[in-house]
Amino acid sequence: MHLPLLLTLLTLLTLTLAATTTTDLYKILQLDKSANDRDLKRAYRTLSKKYHPDKSSGDETKFLEVAEAYETLSDPTTRKIYDQYGHDGLANHKRTGGAQQHNPFDLFSQFFGGGRGQQGVRRGHDMEVKLSIPLRDFYTGREVPFSLEKQQICDTCEGSGSADGHVETCSRCNGRGMIIQKHMLAPGMFQQVQSHCDVCGGQGKTIKKPCKTCGGAKVVRGRIDLVADVEPGMPRGHRIVFENEADEHPDYVAGNLNVVVDELAAKIDTSESDEARRSRNDGAFFRRKGPDLYWKEVLSLREAWMGGWTRNLTHLDGHVVPLSRGRGEVVQPGQVESVAGEGIPSWQEGHVHEHDEHHESHGKLHVEYVVVLPDQMESGMEKEFWSLWEKWRKKNGVDLLKDSGRPAAVVQDVKDEL
Ligand SMILES: [Zn+2]
Ligand SMILES: [Zn+2]
């Protein structure tokens, strides 16, 4: 490690100690007082990785806090002092030379191997999982909890594979993992064959008492809980990278876990009434295309033709987009109204718009109007409409020929229809 870096670290360390965090150590690790050793390790692994200064999500202050909290609580003596006398008790204990502060980066290396910027360390394979979330979550952004099964370093033996912590150098191969066997082909003629040591299986090390949890394998399979931070406007199919969260093994640095966020197909419950369905805002009736949203709004013949209607469209986050036409404002079937600023929030990797003007930071909402004609009328109403049409059709006709834009040969004698 370079001297200036070391000095910086020491300064940071001193600063952290001087400021002596009054935040509860259990809270720093997101645990409560009932946490056992296993919980502590799990919390340390998750949080130290998240805050490691080399990571994009890194936060050096938090990283040091997590290391300090873990060191204090994982030692039964200091944990007892902290539980009884709190931060003051710890400070006293430190003053009297009772506790040794370790380099937080060394602690990190103990857990994950490698170390800061170390090269030539073997790296495990990357993993990929798919996370399907509703369109609403892409719009509002959400921290989506999920769990997955992966290979983890055995907590019981801390990755040694041994029940008593003793790992011995294999006596057959002397730790090389390979043995050379001599075969006599003929008297005085030997052939040397190199092969994996059959005693240690090529590991170079043997364990007398294998760990009961992992059976000496050093790793176990288990579920872990993670949280994917879906940011507002993230594109479908985006890959959220969890650095070093793939399968773990003490012999290599874990690869990355890639979480692909996919849009969940809208579930339509046919037992629900139309009204209930339309008032839900889980996005079942919104469609997304890039930064834009699409919506179909149904109008009656009267509304489309006569105007004088309002609709309160419930958006994905529950806010209301009012749509309306004054009396006499006609909406043609299939007409599309584009509302600026009501599409998907714009999103860029590592950059979330928060205080920008709504219009610039969102795509558009395209509302397509569908006009539904009544297929049944009371006979009285039908008669009245009929005579009304008869009365007005000659006087106030629409020139369909002109409006259709088609050549005269195709449309004939339809000049006087209302
Ligand atoms: Zn084990
Ligand atoms: Zn061996």
Describe the protein.
It is a single chain. With 418 residues, the protein is α+β, with helices and mostly antiparallel strands. The chain folds into 3 domains: 3-112, Helix Hairpins; 127-263, Sandwich (HSP40/DNAj peptide-binding domain), CATH 2.60.260.20; 274-375, Sandwich (HSP40/DNAj peptide-binding domain). Helix content is 29%, strand content 26%. The protein contains 12 helices and 17 strands. It has helices spanning 3-18, 25-28, 37-51, 60-74, 76-95, 104-112, 135-140, 274-279, 301-306, 358-361, 379-392, 400-404; strands spanning 127-133, 142-153, 168-169, 178-186, 189-196, 205-206, 219-230, 239-242, 257-263, 287-289, 292-300, 307-314, 320-327, 336-339, 347-348, 351-352, 365-372. The strands form 7 sheets. It has a 4-stranded mixed beta sheet. Helix 3 packs antiparallel against helix 4. The longest helix is centred in the N-terminal third of the chain and has 20 residues, at 76-95. It is elongated, with a radius of gyration of 35 Å. The termini are far apart. Bound molecules: zinc ion (ZN) (2 copies). One zinc ion is lined by residues 170, 172-173, 177, 197, 199-200, 204.
| Ligand species | zinc ion
Question: What is the class of the largest domain in the CATH system?
Answer: Mainly Beta
Total number of distinct structural domains: 3
Mean pLDDT across the residues is: 82
Structural class: alpha+beta
CATH fold annotation of the largest domain? HSP40/DNAj peptide-binding domain
Beta-strand content estimate = 25-35%
Radius of gyration, CA atoms, in whole angstroms: 35 Å
- CATH second-level architecture of the largest domain: Sandwich
Spatial shape = elongated
Instruction: Find the CATH superfamily of the largest domain.
Output: Urease metallochaperone UreE, N-terminal domain
Provide the spatial order of strands within the biggest beta sheet: 10-11-17-14
Number of helices: 12
GO molecular function, one term: unfolded protein binding
Domain CR-type: 141-223
Domain J: 24-86
Protein name: DnaJ- protein scj1
